[in-house]
């Protein structure tokens, strides 16, 4: 769990350097390509072409960096919106805990356990990561809900936090699609 969090912090730090530093990315790029050439991940003849491609990608990062610097209020509002969304998603466990009629574990404890699970698993893209995530979630749910409700809590959590969202989004997409098609047909008839 701590490896996932540590890797997540390192990746975020690395991307902040890429976004806001003008001197560091080219140095990191040269060092990275030297290492990859040394261990034969990149052929020497391909190195210059790949370095040029990466320099062009860094220009996109610089454009994003200037946007962030010019619109800090918009970025802060977006951050707050995403934070609210994530807290709502993670608090489903707490509401499910109360719905089962359980008590003894605080809202914040359950919330932080869900955050820790997500940080630990989403940060490490390993083969079998989904199974590791499900296993870890099941183990934590066994601690929170008790072993007799762990399976039911997993089904309800996945149903509410994933499948309900997919179903709801699909319904909205279908409504929007048919409403858009109908309005296009009406527009074509008028013209």
Explain what this protein looks like in three dimensions:
This protein has seven helices and no strands. By secondary structure, the chain is mainly alpha-helical. It has two domains: 69 residues, no CATH class; 117 residues, no CATH class. The chain is extended and about 65 Å long.
Q: Based on CA inertia axes, which overall geometry fits? A: extended
Radius of gyration from CA coordinates? 23 Å
Strand residue content: under 5%
Mean pLDDT: 83
Helicity level, as a percent range?
Answer: over 70%
Characterize the largest beta sheet: strand count, sense, and whether it forms a barrel: none
Question: How many structural domains does the protein architecture include?
Answer: 2
* Secondary structure: number of strands: 0
> How many helical stretches?
7
Structural class: mainly alpha
Strand/helix succession: HHHHHHH
Distance between the termini: 61 Å
Outline:
The protein is mostly helical and 191 residues long. The protein has helices at residues 2-20, 24-38, 44-70, 72-99, 107-122, 129-145, 150-190.
């Amino acid at each position: 769990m701590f490896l996932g969090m540590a890797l997540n912090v390192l990746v975020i730090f690395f991307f902040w350097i890429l976004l806001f530093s003008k001197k560091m990315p080219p140095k990191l790029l040269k060092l990275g390509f030297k290492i990859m050439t040394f261990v034969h991940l990149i052929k020497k003849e391909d190195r210059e072409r790949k370095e040029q491609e990466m320099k062009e990608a860094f220009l996109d990062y610089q454009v994003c960096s200037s946007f962030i610097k010019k619109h800090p209020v918009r970025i802060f509002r977006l951050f707050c919106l995403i934070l609210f969304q994530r807290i709502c998603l993670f608090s489903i466990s707490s509401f499910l805990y109360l719905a089962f009629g359980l008590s003894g574990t605080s809202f914040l404890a359950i919330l932080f356990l869900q955050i820790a699970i997500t940080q630990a698993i989403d940060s490490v893209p390993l083969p079998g990561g989904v199974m590791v995530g499900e296993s870890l979630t099941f183990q934590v749910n066994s601690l929170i809900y008790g072993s007799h409700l762990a399976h039911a809590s997993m089904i309800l959590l996945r149903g509410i936090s994933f499948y309900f969202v997919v179903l709801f989004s699909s319904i909205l997409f279908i409504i929007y699609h048919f409403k858009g098609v109908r309005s296009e047909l009406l527009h074509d008839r008028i013209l």
